[in-house]
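Posting this for the archive.
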Amino acid sequence: MSKQEDKGKRLFHDIKCIWMESNNVGYKLCDRGFDCENCSFDKAIRNAAQPASKAEPARSNDVIQRIIDHIGSEELNSNYTYLQNHLVLKNLFNHTFYLGLSPLAMHLLDQYSSVEYCVGPGNVSQGDRIIEIKGDWGSVDITSPMSFTCLGKINTEEKEDSLVRWFSLIKASEEEMNANTLPVSDYHRDIVKVTKKITQIQLNYPDVGYTMMDGGVKLQFLYQIIGTDNYLNILNSLFNKSK
């Protein structure tokens, strides 16, 4: 083992979360300097045993307005590098990053049943299919906007300004990142486009009450109101537009 590889291994060990170190979670690296008292992940683990309250049924306009409000309050996080196809990176050390879904994407993905990472450890090329997200609305693929080396899959959620879903640990060159970073203006443009789209739907669709008009299904998610075709069109417009 080279000195650089040995150093990387020791750095990796030194930032393992206490919950990973104690074998309570499969994979979690600490990026808060072990300030567990102020760590949202630590709080989530400690509160996991408490029963979750059931969401109250909502009217269609309430569901849409909630998403519009969340999207409208979204601000770019300086700790992330925003990529094409609404992926984000969070630096750990030595060009090693978490790779995950952007906050805007997570606001829209208010219901999904699984996130499948479609490539294994090794080299990934720009344009490769890397994620498939599935829900009752169908599925959507996300292709990689850049080339990188996949070090392994992870499965974490982090609550900071927004919910972020991290799904891989990767190594990427500065050149690849710089060439495929999503400009701030484009990110804000996507926020405006999505907000306009669902606002138009909000204006044109009747407020159908607590259940869908075809009877019985509780309204909780955007796709139930705007239809799966409209919903998938919005997701695909975000996730597959790399150069």
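The two ends are 38 Å apart (CA to CA). The first helix runs from residue 3 to 14.
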